[in-house]
Amino acid sequence: MASLTITINGESRTITAAPETPLLWVLRDELGMVGTKFGCGIGQCGSCTVHLDGNAVRSCQLPVSALEGKKITTIEGLSEAGDHPVQVAWKEVDVPQCGYCQAGQIMTASAFLAQNPSPSSEEIRNAMHGNICRCASYNRIEKAVAQAAQNS
Amino acid sequence: MENNQKLTFSRRGFIKTSALAGGGMLIGFNLFQACKEAAQPPVDIASLNFNDFNAFIKISDDGYVTIFSPNPEIGQGVKTSMPMIIAEELDVPWEKVHVAQGILDTKNYQRQVAGGSQSIRFGWDALRQTGATAKQMLINAAAAQWGVDASTCSASQGVITNANGDSLHYGQVVNQAAGLEVPENVTLKETKDYTIIGTDTRNVDIDEIITGKPLFGLDYTAEGMVYASVMRPPAFGNALESFDDADARAVAGVIDVVSYDNKIAVLANNTWAAMQGKKALKAIWKADGTLESTADHDRILNEILDGNSFDTRREDGDVAAAFAAADEVVERTYESPFLPHNCMEPMNFYANVTADRIHLVGPIQTPAGTAARVAQLLDRNAEEVHLEMTRMGGGFGRRLYGDFVMDAAQISNLAQKPVKVVYSREDDMTAGIYRPAIKYRIAASLKDGEITGYHLKEAAINSNMYGLIPHFFPAGAISNYKVDTANYQSNITIGAWRAPYTNFLAFAEQTFFDEIAGKLGKDAVQMRLDLLENVKDNTDENIQYSGKRMQDTIRLAAEKGGWGNAPEGVYQGFSAYYSHNTHVAELAEVEIENGYPVVKRVTVAVDCGIVVNPLGAKNQIEGGVIDGIGHAMYGDFGFDNGRPTSNNYDTYRLIRMKETPQVDTYFVDNGLSPTGLGEPALPPAGAAIANAIHAATGQRLMKQPFVNDLEPAKMKEVIGFTVPLPGQMENC
User: Fold this and answer.
1) 8 A C-beta contact, residue A33 and residue A1
2) Most buried of the four, B164, B198, B479, B657, by CB within 10 Å?
3) For residue A48, which residues of chain B lie inside 8 Å, CB to CB?
4) What topology does CATH give the domain A85-151?
5) A62·B273 Cβ contact <8 A
6) Fold of B217-289+347-422
7) CB-based contact (8 Å) between B77 and chain A?
8) Each residue of B598-628: pLDDT tens digit?
9) What is the pLDDT, as a whole number, of residue B105?
């Protein structure tokens, strides 16, 4: 067990965890921030996606020991009022079915659009390919990402 | 059966109202079936329970309406669409409606199950009737206040008006209405007057979902709760001989280790520690039954199909005579693997077993049956079991089975702690409940350019097609018709998987007909329309699909998708299937890219009667079609000496964004009563794309997943999708 200080959604948080503990479980079980979801535990499904210094990463593959001095953003901190352009587009398009994977989808999309604000349709499909939606709301995810790009 | 315009109903004692202590009115009612004469609803909203009623509406004196949605939400949209039906007849603006998930106490309530795509179909009458009854009571209260006859008053958008031009909003009369007698008969709206039903309405939980609020079972926590990770036998046919938990107990955060029913559970103060503790367990397993492999199943199912031991589920005319007299008999065998459900939210449940109460919380499609099983398992009184449902991160049939609830209850009972059991993805994929592997052999006799006989044989693992499936198309369309089933009893656990049986049967049948159409030189769509003509005068009550409705649905898909008018380089495939009371037709388009066929677009026509929420309905259909394509194309799961051949997404492939076609949905507009949508778009998808692939390449696909047979070298490149390491994620 080690005591670590990490920055999450702009706040400095001190946590006690084994250094190899993935950020995902620290967020969910230690900090009670359950918006970031567990899907596969091997970085294949994207449900646990968060931003690490602005890049979309899989929090299930990210040991907390690697995070000192880094900035983490989770779905809870993406916007103050749930009005990030990607969230707004998600709502306008009414993307979710079960909704479980959507936080990860939104975090992938928002990091992608920050780096590529005017993507082509093919770039959107490439960017979102790593996130599984078992309900297969893929048509709407694609549409919402395009709409978010237009709106922002 | 198909008549929607039944304008008056008798309440038959299933609606009761009470005045709420703080003002307002509470209406309790029973969906799906009129049950015993019920008690009064509580006057205190905090004491809501679902013993006497399974649904409640609260009308507050500020005019706002809260609808306690009774059915579990697994992503099928009923938490939005069912309240829309109430709000329509209550005639209240949707902006003034708040929808809350009813916390379900499992004693005595009726149908609180998500399964079989039946929530809307069964709830349609009761939901409308309840809304209309409440509206009439509000009108009656206003009429009494004005001293006029209620028949001279009307209500719209939450406001009651009379002939003199006076108006009162619902909140102003709700306290008086609560004291009135419930009217015996009410009049329902005509379809043309709907203002909420038929309008695009967003998922009522959308704000919580997009901001990551705790909604799901996995998000639930309670005071003192610990986490458990369960090790199960690695193979079907294994049992636990012994285990050593010293290393597991040494993992930081691990609290306890308990064992039951050939399983070992590691308890810890966080999920990660519990999972690490499980990995540190040393268990020795022994044989306890046969260790089956996919090769065994393949051989056994073929032997069944080649044999003569079948149970006949439907027989019309004389198939043998038709075959004997045929110009040609065409016989094909279609094969499908086991499939895991793979809900994105892995199985999990909370249990707190104490001396006086068993508290269960989590995602489950069958709360009542599961609560009863827990009581039986722990030899406790059913009255002591309290089960609450959460939103579910997917179901697909998997959460009909309460095995993970039994785990939670057992572990909490043994450890005497509140416990959350969390399956890893590997647990979720290997611990069982699978769609069974099935083979269909279909033979048809052709004579003088027509199909004269049809014989379907099913060989499945552990169970067979059920209910009315043997009476689906082409029953009634071909005069000599026979359906035979048989199964092999395996120790691999199977269960319902989205659109059970039809998820593969539809592929077999609809690709078979495509091939027959080719042999007869007929247009694949016209041949289906011609066959359906034979069912138009059907009087067999087992045949519930409608020849006319299916024809209309097929024509709509063909017209909207441009059947027969594909541009150069675009290849079309057609499929149509009735299941879960809904008629669906799909036209798939395939193009060749880099040498292999790619599905680019699917045009879907659906007859589900009145579409309550088109926005949600289209989401179900898009998802169902893509899910159907994904599993037909990639879903591959088998066993090697009892062990599942894959256990996570590095070895098991689900459809992803780049493999997804555009899905365009059209509804047949006929004003008939609504039917379900959670499942019926899936079954036709596999044949639609297989038939389009045949049109593109000449290859007939008869075995799922297609990826194993289709241009193997090129298709498999896509599997090699690798996940970037942290920091390399910019473009995924």
Assistant:
1) no
2) B657
3) none
4) DNA polymerase; domain 1 (1.10.150)
5) no
6) Aldehyde Oxidoreductase; domain 4 (3.30.365)
7) yes
8) 999 999 999 999 999 999 999 999 999 999 9
9) 53
Distance of CA B246 to the CA centre of its chain: 43
Percent of chain A with pLDDT over 70: 100
Place B715 in a pLDDT band, splitting at 50, 70 and 90. very low
Kindly tell me if the per-residue pLDDT of B8 is higher than 70: no
Phi, psi of B8 (to 5 degrees): -120, 145
Taking CB atoms and an 8 Å cutoff, what residues of chain A touch B209? 96, 99, 102-103
* Fold classified for B8-210: Aldehyde Oxidoreductase; domain 4 (3.30.365)
Asked: is B438-719 a CATH 3.40.30.10 domain? The reply is no
Check CB contact of B622 with chain A, cutoff 8 Å.
yes
Query: Rounded distance, CA B386 to CA B173, Å?
Result: 36
- For residue B352, is pLDDT > 90? yes
Q: Measured between beta carbons, which residues in chain B are less than 8 angstroms from residue A47? A: 344
Partners of B425 on chain A (C-beta within 8 Å) are 39-42, 45
User: Is the model more confident about B482 or about B19?
Assistant: B482
Average pLDDT over residues B334-357: 98
Q: What is the DSSP letter of B645?
A: S
B709 pLDDT exceeds 50?
yes
* Least confident range of A60-69, B112-121, B443-452: B112-121
The segment(s) of chain B belonging to CATH 3.30.365.10 are 8-210, 217-289+347-422, 438-719
Residue of chain A with shortest Cα separation from B659: A129
d(CA A96, CA B208): 11
Q: In chain B, what is the straight-line distance between the N-terminal and C-terminal CA atoms, in Å?
A: 51
d(CA B216, CA A34): 9
Which CATH fold would you assign to the domain A2-77?
Answer: Ubiquitin-like (UB roll) (3.10.20)
Residue ranges, CATH 3.10.20.30, chain A = 2-77
A vs B, Cβ pairs < 8 A, gives: 227
Mean pLDDT of B345-355: 98
Q: Do A29 and B272 touch (CB under 8 A)?
A: yes
Domain with CATH 1.10.150.120 in chain A: 85-151
Residue B686 has pLDDT above 70, yes or no: yes
Q: What is the spatial distance between Cα B618 and Cα B662, in angstroms, rounded to a whole number?
A: 12
Q: How far is CA B200 from CA B17, B152, B190, in A?
A: 31, 32, 19
Of all residues in chain B, the percent with pLDDT exceeding 70 is 90
pLDDT in tens, B205-253: 999 999 999 999 999 999 999 999 999 999 999 999 999 999 999 999 9
- Amino acid present at B237: G
Which residues of chain B are within 8 Å of residue A99 when distances are taken between CB atoms?
75, 203, 205, 209, 215, 391, 393
pTM here is 0.93
CB B730 within 8 A of CB A55: yes
**A32/B221 touch (CB, cutoff 8 Å), yes or no:** yes
Place of tokens 């590529």: A116
Best mutation site among B73, B729, B730 for testing chain A: the one with the most A CBs within 10 Å?
A: B729
State residue B50's pLDDT score. Answer: 63
Q: How far apart are CA A6 and CA A12, in angstroms?
A: 6
Option in A1, A42, A87 nearest B210 (CB): A87
Mutation choice for B interface testing from A3, A28, A38 by most B CBs within 10 A: A38
Strands (E), chain A: 2-8, 11-17, 49-52, 55-58, 71-73
Confidence of residue B112 (pLDDT cuts 50, 70, 90): very low
Query: In this predicted structure, what is the pLDDT of residue A116?
Result: 98
The residue that leads in pLDDT, A1 or B339, is: B339
Phi-psi region of B528 (alpha: psi -120 to 50; beta: other; left: phi over 0): alpha
Q: How far is B659 from chain A (nearest CA, A)?
A: 9
CB contact under 8 A, B209 and A139: no
* Amino acid (1-letter code) at residue B301: L
